[in-house]
Amino acid sequence: MEKVVACPYKRPNALCRLICFPWAGGGTSQLAQWGKLFSNSIEVSSVRLPGRESRLKEPFAKDMKTVVDEITSVLLKELQEKPFAFFGHSFGSYISFAVALHLKEKYGLEPIHLFVSGAHAPNSEAFLPIKSIPICDAEDEDILTYIQILGGTPSELLQNEDIKKHLIRTFREDLRVLQTFSFDKAERSIPFSCDITCFNGSEDKPHDLEAWHDLTSGDISFYNLPGSHFYLLEPSNEIFLTKHITRCIENSGL
Q1: How many C-beta neighbours within 10 Å does residue 147 have?
Q2: Distance of alpha carbon 59 from alpha carbon 236, whole angstroms
Q3: What does the pLDDT average to over 78-85?
């Protein structure tokens, strides 16, 4: 469990679990720390993919199905015990959706709320170009430039050659996983009934969020917060996110 899920602030008596899914190239360090910002009614965990942090020596996941199967097998028992919600940012939004979809279709489990950030709806045509990025042929310098444009990585870390190389490789492998993910809404009925909240940075590139309406019979809400792709790392936005997520969970009738 601890290998795949980081939960530094355990709250066994919490009413709900919030499972967080980090961005491409990311680990658990930021989102797992949200645990200290939430009330005792919510326990926060962050998913850790192979190839980073304490799983550094493990091979990277080869596709989205492998990622979803591992996360599901580790979390299933806990998710059957009490209500849960998902938060994902960017790459993590797509993983959270894929895991939620698998849980619903195979086990009849559904998050009480899905919080997505900095990502297109997975059924949107705007998602398709991501699948055709020539990641295998991309030069390290091109990937590094893209990482720097996105922000979120302290410049001093990129001065360290070993850290920089590992970050580039991790980002490349995560993008490769994302390219194996596909979701065809036409083949399914509306998959969810939970509410979905979409967050975006006001200076980030626009994301197609309207297509989320086709994925749930619940309510959809949209919030633009000041900042770029990594707006959520700004302390003021972090406070807004944690307060808003808490309110949504507490108002869900637990």
Answers
A1: 18
A2: 36
A3: 96
The backbone torsions φ and ψ at residue 61, rounded to the nearest 5 degrees and listed phi first, read -65, 145
Long-range contacts of 38-41 (CB under 8 A, 24+ apart): 38/242, 38/245, 38/246, 39/246, 40/11, 40/13, 40/14, 41/11, 41/14, 41/15, 41/16, 41/246, 41/249, 41/250, 41/254
The answer to whether residue 189 is catalytic is no
Given 113, 120, 207, 229, the catalytic residue = 229
Domain ranges across the chain? 5-252
Close Cβ partners of 223 (under 8 Å, ≥ 6 residues apart): 197, 198, 199, 200, 244
SS3 56: coil
Question: Which of these is catalytic: 90, 96, 117, 124?
Answer: 90
Could you confirm whether 229 is annotated as catalytic?
yes
Cβ atoms 9, 75 nearer than 8 A: no
Superfamily of domain 5-252: Alpha/Beta hydrolase fold, catalytic domain (3.40.50.1820)
Residue 136 confidence class, pLDDT cut points 50, 70, 90: confident
Largest CA-CA distance found in the chain, in angstroms, rounded: 50
| Residue with the larger pLDDT of the pair 184 and 110 | 110
Question: Among candidates 115, 128, 101, 4, which has minimal Cα distance to 61?
Answer: 4
Q: Could you identify the residue written with the tokens 């015990």? A: 81
Q: Is the pLDDT of residue 186 over 70?
A: no
Q: Which long-range contacts (CB under 8 A, 24 or more apart) does 221-227 make?
A: 221/195, 221/196, 221/197, 222/197, 222/198, 223/197, 223/198, 223/199, 224/199, 224/200, 225/199, 225/200, 225/201, 226/201, 226/202, 227/201, 227/202, 227/203
